[in-house]
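Design a sequence for this backbone.
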């Protein structure tokens, strides 16, 4: 039986095993997908070990995505983004990044037209970088706002967008067609808002990459009559893109979405 897996540290929170095991079963592939806790200083050995044992492929999550670039050969997109979230073994160990593809497919799935749209992307970390590079290829006008403005400037310069600080959101948000939160703000209940709710309006699309809970941003968007999109389908589509790299086959995204939403429900019920 082929083994696939995700490496991270910590890794207990990962929804990838549930999502990928459901997908592999639906695809009729005799394989299993496990989560492995791998500390950063053991990543090189862990990747070599997985290759030696004939693993079908790997995903990487925090804090290993950036470190992997120093260890394996990555494709142009992963190198530009500065992070690897998928590894394939086809005689060679190759790094890829499917996060941006996942985000764009999720937006397109929701009917968002990106070409010519004014997009405000908040954040300049790993998720934001993946989204920025892929979005730029779709012809969107991108304004990047980040707490650390220097990081926003570096990212904006590399993709041909404009850079701002979080204070500028006051004037950026009202004129945006699409607002994307790619920061970790909103992961926990009680996190302060990045900008006041009244800046949002009907007709806008608000996409929050966070998938673990309904964030205040998404609640504000819905209350303002804007379209609110959470990070679940980004997670599903980045996983589908990884499966396609590993197997050459189209992944069953509906099955994957159901598995993710069921795991999230279970987790919420356990917390009650
Ligand atoms: P990261 O590389 O650590 O970047 C974190 C970002 O959040 C940075 O832009 C950082 O700003 C900003 N930030 C953190 N705390 C802040 C605060 N208190 N106020 C304002 N900005 C703050 O993390 P990441 O890997 O990009 O992940 C970001 C989020 O995306 C996480 O919630 C993660 O779960 C989610 N994610 C979702 C998917 C999906 O498939 N849906 C995929 C990947 C990631 P500075 O630069 O100023 O520090």
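Sequence:
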């Amino acid at each position: 039986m082929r083994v696939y897996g995700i490496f991270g540290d910590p890794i207990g929170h990962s929804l990838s095993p549930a999502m990928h095991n459901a997908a592999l079963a639906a695809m009729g592939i005799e394989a299993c997908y496990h989560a492995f806790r791998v500390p950063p200083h053991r990543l090189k050995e862990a990747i070599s070990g997985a290759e030696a044992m004939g693993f079908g492929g790997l995903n990487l999550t925090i804090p290993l995505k950036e470190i992997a670039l120093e260890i394996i050969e990555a494709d142009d997109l992963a190198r530009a983004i500065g992070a690897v979230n998928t590894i394939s073994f086809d005689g060679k160990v190759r790094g890829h990044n499917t996060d941006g593809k996942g985000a764009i497919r999720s937006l397109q799935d929701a009917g968002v037209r990106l070409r010519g749209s004014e997009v405000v992307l908040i954040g300049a970390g790993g998720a934001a970088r993946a989204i920025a590079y892929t979005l730029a290829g779709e012809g969107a006008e991108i304004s990047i706002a980040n707490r650390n403005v220097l990081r926003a400037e570096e990212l904006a310069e590399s993709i041909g967008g404009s850079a701002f600080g979080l204070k500028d959101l006051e004037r950026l948000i009202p004129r945006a067609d699409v607002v994307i939160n790619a920061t970790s703000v909103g992961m926990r209940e009680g996190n302060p808002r990045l900008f006041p709710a009244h800046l949002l309006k009907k007709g806008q699309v608000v996409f929050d990459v966070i998938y673990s809970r309904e964030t205040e941003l998404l609640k504000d968007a819905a209350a303002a009559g804007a379209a609110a999109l959470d990070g679940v389908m980004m997670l599903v589509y980045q996983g589908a893109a990884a499966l396609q790299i590993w197997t050459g086959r189209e992944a069953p995204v509906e099955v994957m979405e159901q598995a993710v939403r069921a795991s999230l429900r279970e987790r919420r019920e356990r917390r009650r």
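Residues 99, 102, 123-128, 146-148, 151, 182-185, 187, 209-211, 231, 234-235, 238 surround NAP (CB under 6 Å).
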